[in-house]
Design goal:
By secondary structure, the protein is an alpha+beta fold. It has eight helices and seven strands. The chain has a single domain, classed as Aminopeptidase. Strands 1-2-3-4-5-7-6 form a seven-stranded mixed sheet, with helices on both faces. The protein starts with a helix and ends in a 5-residue tail after the last helix.
Length: about 170
């Protein structure tokens, strides 16, 4: 890889899946939600994705996070966040490239979709307008339930769709 290729935003952003990402993403989550980090129970099957940005050879920072909880043939997406100061600190060329790629939250969801796609659907609990915009860009659709959106991965009958929406909406925030 040439020096110019290694200086791109895409070359400096790395997204990793963890069973428990508390060590890397705990402070970011707490900063974003003013709540304790969601620690997965052992063997829960949770998937936690963290986006890391390499500022230079000595500094790598966790800048984004998203949590996926398995529920039968579904994944429940929650806790999507990006460090509030991240975009303002990016060099202009990296900021432009990041924006063209859809932003860190979208890149996290796209990475997760490549791995967590053997399911009927993803559901998201969305309480933020910015999060709603990015979730819509990656295929989420309204369910008619406040805060709950869905991204279908398989063809599911309208009756089953309605039953799944009811089941997930009854859970409340996740």
């Amino acid at each position: 890889m040439s020096r110019s290729e290694s200086d791109t935003f895409a070359a400096r952003l790395h997204i990793r899946r963890f069973d428990d990402a508390a060590y890397f993403a705990g402070p970011l989550f707490e900063e974003s939600f003013r709540a304790a980090f969601p620690v997965p129970p052992p063997g829960s099957g949770w998937a936690q994705y963290v986006a890391f940005y390499r500022w230079n050879d000595d500094l790598v920072e966790p800048v984004g996070f998203c949590n996926y909880l398995p529920l039968d043939a579904l994944w429940l997406e929650g806790g999507l966040c990006v460090r509030r100061t991240f975009y303002a600190r990016l060099p202009a060329a990296h900021s432009d490239e990041c924006r063209a790629l859809g932003g860190v939250a979208q890149l996290i969801m796209e990475a997760a979709a490549r791995e967590l796609n053997d399911c009927d659907a993803w559901f998201a609990y969305i309480g933020d307008e910015r999060s709603l915009r990015v979730c819509t860009r990656v295929g989420y659709r309204p369910t008619g339930r406040q805060y709950v959106a869905v991204k279908w991965f398989r063809s599911v009958s309208p009756e089953r769709q309605a039953a799944l929406i009811d089941r997930v909406a009854a859970l409340g925030p996740f």
